[in-house]
Design brief:
seven-stranded antiparallel β-sheet, about 130 residues, 2 helices, about 35% strand, alpha+beta, SH3 type barrels
Protein backbone atom coordinates (compact mmCIF):
# COMPACT_ATOMS: atom_id res chain seq x y z
CA UNK A 1 0.00 0.00 0.00
CA UNK A 2 2.82 2.43 0.78
CA UNK A 3 4.06 1.95 -2.77
CA UNK A 4 0.78 3.35 -4.15
CA UNK A 5 1.13 6.53 -2.09
CA UNK A 6 4.75 6.92 -3.22
CA UNK A 7 3.69 6.57 -6.89
CA UNK A 8 0.90 9.10 -6.41
CA UNK A 9 3.26 11.56 -4.72
CA UNK A 10 5.60 11.48 -7.74
CA UNK A 11 2.71 12.16 -10.13
CA UNK A 12 1.24 14.86 -7.88
CA UNK A 13 4.61 16.64 -7.72
CA UNK A 14 4.63 16.83 -11.53
CA UNK A 15 1.04 18.06 -11.67
CA UNK A 16 1.85 20.85 -9.22
CA UNK A 17 4.47 22.21 -11.65
CA UNK A 18 1.97 22.50 -14.53
CA UNK A 19 0.93 25.92 -15.85
CA UNK A 20 -2.82 26.51 -15.64
CA UNK A 21 -2.88 30.13 -16.81
CA UNK A 22 -4.68 29.43 -20.12
CA UNK A 23 -6.93 26.64 -18.95
CA UNK A 24 -10.58 26.67 -20.07
CA UNK A 25 -13.26 24.58 -18.37
CA UNK A 26 -16.91 25.10 -17.49
CA UNK A 27 -19.69 23.70 -15.37
CA UNK A 28 -21.34 20.63 -16.93
CA UNK A 29 -18.05 19.39 -18.44
CA UNK A 30 -16.81 15.87 -17.77
CA UNK A 31 -13.02 15.60 -17.56
CA UNK A 32 -10.39 13.01 -16.80
CA UNK A 33 -8.92 14.15 -13.50
CA UNK A 34 -5.77 13.17 -11.60
CA UNK A 35 -7.77 12.11 -8.54
CA UNK A 36 -5.02 10.44 -6.56
CA UNK A 37 -4.51 7.73 -3.98
CA UNK A 38 -6.68 8.81 -1.08
CA UNK A 39 -7.33 7.71 2.48
CA UNK A 40 -9.86 5.17 3.76
CA UNK A 41 -13.25 5.34 2.03
CA UNK A 42 -12.34 8.37 -0.10
CA UNK A 43 -12.63 7.76 -3.84
CA UNK A 44 -9.37 7.01 -5.66
CA UNK A 45 -8.19 7.45 -9.20
CA UNK A 46 -7.61 4.39 -11.37
CA UNK A 47 -4.65 3.09 -13.36
CA UNK A 48 -1.00 4.22 -13.17
CA UNK A 49 -1.95 7.91 -13.49
CA UNK A 50 -4.70 7.76 -10.82
CA UNK A 51 -7.27 9.17 -13.25
CA UNK A 52 -11.02 9.28 -12.71
CA UNK A 53 -13.79 10.97 -14.71
CA UNK A 54 -15.29 13.92 -12.86
CA UNK A 55 -18.14 16.32 -13.44
CA UNK A 56 -17.33 20.02 -13.12
CA UNK A 57 -20.09 20.83 -10.65
CA UNK A 58 -19.25 24.46 -9.84
CA UNK A 59 -16.59 26.82 -11.17
CA UNK A 60 -15.20 28.71 -8.16
CA UNK A 61 -12.51 30.72 -9.95
CA UNK A 62 -10.30 30.48 -13.05
CA UNK A 63 -8.11 28.00 -11.20
CA UNK A 64 -10.44 26.07 -8.87
CA UNK A 65 -13.71 24.18 -9.09
CA UNK A 66 -15.91 21.70 -7.28
CA UNK A 67 -16.00 18.27 -8.92
CA UNK A 68 -18.05 15.14 -8.41
CA UNK A 69 -16.34 11.82 -9.23
CA UNK A 70 -18.08 9.59 -11.75
CA UNK A 71 -18.21 5.87 -12.40
CA UNK A 72 -19.69 3.68 -15.12
CA UNK A 73 -20.67 1.17 -12.41
CA UNK A 74 -24.30 1.40 -11.32
CA UNK A 75 -24.54 2.22 -7.59
CA UNK A 76 -27.64 2.79 -5.49
CA UNK A 77 -28.26 4.98 -2.44
CA UNK A 78 -29.05 8.52 -1.34
CA UNK A 79 -25.64 9.85 -2.27
CA UNK A 80 -25.59 8.47 -5.83
CA UNK A 81 -27.15 10.02 -8.92
CA UNK A 82 -27.36 8.59 -12.42
CA UNK A 83 -26.68 11.04 -15.21
CA UNK A 84 -26.80 10.78 -18.97
CA UNK A 85 -24.03 12.55 -20.84
CA UNK A 86 -24.44 14.26 -24.19
CA UNK A 87 -22.84 11.20 -25.85
CA UNK A 88 -25.51 8.97 -24.23
CA UNK A 89 -23.24 7.33 -21.66
CA UNK A 90 -24.86 6.62 -18.29
CA UNK A 91 -22.60 7.38 -15.34
CA UNK A 92 -23.06 7.30 -11.58
CA UNK A 93 -22.14 10.51 -9.74
CA UNK A 94 -20.98 9.94 -6.16
CA UNK A 95 -22.43 13.08 -4.58
CA UNK A 96 -20.93 12.44 -1.13
CA UNK A 97 -17.41 12.65 -2.62
CA UNK A 98 -17.70 16.23 -3.90
CA UNK A 99 -14.27 17.86 -3.80
CA UNK A 100 -12.59 21.20 -4.49
CA UNK A 101 -9.66 20.84 -6.85
CA UNK A 102 -7.10 23.00 -8.61
CA UNK A 103 -7.61 22.87 -12.39
CA UNK A 104 -4.07 21.54 -12.75
CA UNK A 105 -5.60 18.16 -11.86
CA UNK A 106 -7.75 18.21 -15.03
CA UNK A 107 -6.28 16.29 -17.96
CA UNK A 108 -8.72 15.97 -20.90
CA UNK A 109 -12.33 16.93 -21.49
CA UNK A 110 -14.26 13.80 -22.45
CA UNK A 111 -17.95 14.75 -22.41
CA UNK A 112 -20.58 17.06 -20.92
CA UNK A 113 -24.13 16.99 -19.57
CA UNK A 114 -27.16 19.17 -20.22
CA UNK A 115 -28.10 22.18 -18.12
CA UNK A 116 -31.25 20.34 -17.00
CA UNK A 117 -29.13 17.39 -15.83
CA UNK A 118 -26.85 19.73 -13.85
CA UNK A 119 -29.88 21.33 -12.20
CA UNK A 120 -31.13 17.88 -11.11
CA UNK A 121 -27.72 17.14 -9.58
CA UNK A 122 -27.71 20.48 -7.74
CA UNK A 123 -31.06 19.60 -6.18
CA UNK A 124 -29.73 16.19 -5.10
CA UNK A 125 -26.61 17.74 -3.52
CA UNK A 126 -28.77 20.21 -1.58
CA UNK A 127 -30.98 17.31 -0.40
CA UNK A 128 -27.89 15.37 0.66
CA UNK A 129 -26.56 18.28 2.74
CA UNK A 130 -29.88 18.89 4.52
Amino acid sequence: MEDIYYQWHKIKSGINRLDSSNFYFKERDIWWCYYGANVGREQNGKNKLFLRPVLIFKKLSRKTCLVIPLSTQIKYGNHYFFLLSETNIIRTATLSQIKMIDVKRLRDKIDSISTAELNFIKEKVIDLIR
